[in-house]
Amino acid sequence: MSTSSATSGDATSKGRIKIVHIYPREMSIYGDLGNTRCLASRLRWHGYEPVIHQHHPGNDFPTDAHLVLGGGGQDSGQARVEDDLAHNADVLRSLAADGAPMLMICGMYQLFGNAFITVEGERLPGIAILDVTTQGNAKRMVGPVVLETAFGDVVGYENHSGSTKLGPGQQPFGRVKSGMGNNGTDGTEGAVTGNVFGSYLHGPVLPANPALADALIKLAVERALGEPFVLGRIDDELADRARTRQIHRLVG
Amino acid sequence: MAVAAGKVARAATRLRGGGSAMPGLVVERLDPRFLTHALANLPRGVVVVTGTNGKTTTTKMLVAILREHGLTVFTNPTGSNFTRGVISSMLAEIPFSGRLKADIAVLELDEAHALKFAAEVKPTHSLLLNVARDQLDRFAEIDHTAKLLAELAEQTTTGVVLNIDDSFVARIATRVPDGVTVTYFGVDPSIADRLPELQEADVRFDDEFTPPRPTAADGLLLPHDERSFEVRFGLTGRVGPMVLKQRGLAAMINATAATSTAKALLANEFREVDAVSALERVTPPFGRGEVIDADGQPLELVLVKNPAGFTVALGTYGSAPVTTMVAINDNYADGRDVSWLYDVSFESLRDNGVALTSGVRAYDMALRLKYDDVAVAEVEPDLEVALERFLTAYKDEPKRIFCTYTAMMTLRRDLAARYGLAKFGEDAA
Questions:
Q1: Which of residues 164-203 of A touch B (CB under 8 A)?
Q2: Rounded distance, CA B319 to CA B324, Å?
Q3: pLDDT tens for the 252 residues of chain A, in order
């Protein structure tokens, strides 16, 4: 367990926000730590004080989390976190039910679902916060993605072999404008239940999609401080240019 | 017949100034057993060099040491590290009989193609450098890359040389067949704290395998200062001190790997003094810290392709900050996913900032730098336009460009036209 405050003095801070990154060693192989870096910087730019807590297998899960992040890993990484995730499933489920914002990418998105069925037919249970089920495939879905979401067009990069199906009534995170998404057939990508977001998008997804990043920050701030989120002034021109160029390349 | 056709194709592509693998493809189609035939019975065998980072540099160093010892060495010097590239480079040297006239072959092969190659020609020796995250859109998983190297070790008939400090590589020792010698290279325990400069630690787990204690056959890197170092073998053996033309700890560890392998290959014929004089003359390969004279000021081209490599490059050149440009493309050969840029720390660029970002993902690179509080003066996706501005606006300053593979090809072509450089693959040395 390790906790670090990203700023030294907090005299001018509008408040402390605790971000928990789960399994950064085992489940962050595609730059998903960039999401944590992005949120920490943006919180600072908005005038808040981020506190980053890394949760490793075997440690107590911090129940005072204001925002929880998870990323993608290899099969060996998933195997290393399974027990800890099962052990902390109730804490995560009650945090989710209580409205804590969470962003789970790729492998952690799958583990937040009902189950992952391997190519051999073995059923590996997830923690069922999102009503999705993933079937292992021989074929990988790899490439750049553009989604239409509640936060505008979102760009990223997918790299997964699992094919994910939404349960009845489960809302997707977005609709695929370019790329494969959950399964390459139904046009959905990711899943959203309450304030819990699951998605296959690396990139990492938050830096180039600041509207999504700020939506998570708003939820975390309101949860932490019980008062409305007050935006600081951030120049997002580079993010906007990066995103719109990708959209232009992929969907014209 | 295949040799003749390949030679014609080779002449044709050279006239067009085209790619290096096409003639190999012609031969591969005509005679799938070409490689086996050409490389059969080389008196000192076939050495395969593979791993994520340092293949080109290490191969060049090993070849230099062996040639200094009087051997005739066949190699694939163009960084064309697929089997077709090997065949293509062979066509220049091979007689129409189809049998290569050389004492030994030293081949740099991409991790996946090394296995494909081994299916045709079993290497007598393999040198396995390291495993790091690299272009996961192609290899999917680092565990998969490690598995490919282990399978190559299983195919090797005489000797395997392993990186003792990289647990993914060192543990391959347990997979080496009986009767095949295992030799290690690594860093001297006194500089173990510098290992993070050479490899990323976050995806390794400290269990399962403890490497053996190094013996007098294993080469360990002992730096004396920023430039000078020696390779130690046991308590008394040493090669060096020496100073390479290429800077940085990564180049030193590559030299250590090459020296350890040469010693294993040459046994009693190995001469320290020849190894040192060969290594000291090796020029940095194309794009690996190559220095170009740009209007009287040095311009360094540094290839970056994965988090470990970019981190090493920043560490190597960070001690001498100069005006910097970063060019990131996302074509297949670059890695189409640019997420990896978030696994590199760019803080060493913060004091001086970055003059320009360029390439298809110029804005993504600028955005990445912003998150490390590194100021970017200008973003220009068009590489030629960016290079023109970089060369004119910073005419009187030493400069450096970090670039991905296809960005480097474009920049190198432009620079070659401006300053009359040797063409890719036509190493002046």
A1: 202-203
A2: 13
A3: 445 544 444 457 899 999 999 998 888 877 888 999 999 999 999 999 999 999 999 999 999 999 999 998 877 778 889 899 999 999 999 999 999 999 999 999 999 999 999 888 888 899 999 999 999 887 889 999 999 999 999 999 999 989 999 999 999 999 999 999 999 999 999 999 999 999 999 999 999 999 999 999 999 999 999 999 999 999 999 999 999 999 999 998
Active site residues per annotation of A: 106, 202
Give the CA dihedral B219, B225, B228, B233, nearest 10 degrees. -20
Measured between beta carbons, the chain B residues lying within 8 angstroms of A242 are: 361, 363-364, 366-367
CA atoms of B348 and B317, how far apart (whole Å): 9
Alpha carbons B327 and B331: distance in angstroms, whole number: 12
pLDDT for B248: 82
Other C-beta atoms closer than 10 Å to the C-beta of B191 total 16
Q: CATH 3.90.190.20 region(s) of chain B?
A: 288-419
Q: Six-digit token pair at B59?
A: 């191969």
Q: Where in chain B is the domain with CATH 3.40.1190.10?
A: 2-281
Sort out which chain A residues have CB atoms less than 8 A from B371's CB and list them: 34, 37-38, 41, 207
**For position B6, what pLDDT does the model report?**
60
Classified as helix, coil or strand, A250 is helix
B283 secondary structure, DSSP code: P
Q: Which residues contact A138 (CB under 8 A, 6 or more apart)?
A: A119, A161
A140 contacts on B by Cβ (under 8 Å): 140
| Residue B337 structure tokens | 């996913």
Locate the DSSP E strands across chain A: 2-5, 16-22, 49-55, 67-70, 102-105, 115-117, 123-125, 132-149, 152-166, 174-178, 188-189, 191-193, 196-199
The β-bridge partners of A202 are: A157
Q: For B217-243, what is each residue's pLDDT tens digit?
A: 999 999 998 889 999 999 889 999 999
Quote the pTM value. Answer: 0.77
Given this structure, which CATH class describes domain B288-419?
alpha beta
Would you identify the CATH topology of the domain B2-281? Answer: UDP-N-acetylmuramoyl-L-alanine:D-glutamate ligase (3.40.1190)
Residue pLDDT, tens place only, A192-251: 999 999 999 999 999 999 999 999 999 999 999 999 999 999 999 999 999 999 999 999
Residue-range domains of chain A with CATH: 2-251 (3.40.50.880)
Say if the Cβ atoms of A30 and B337 lie within 8 Å: yes
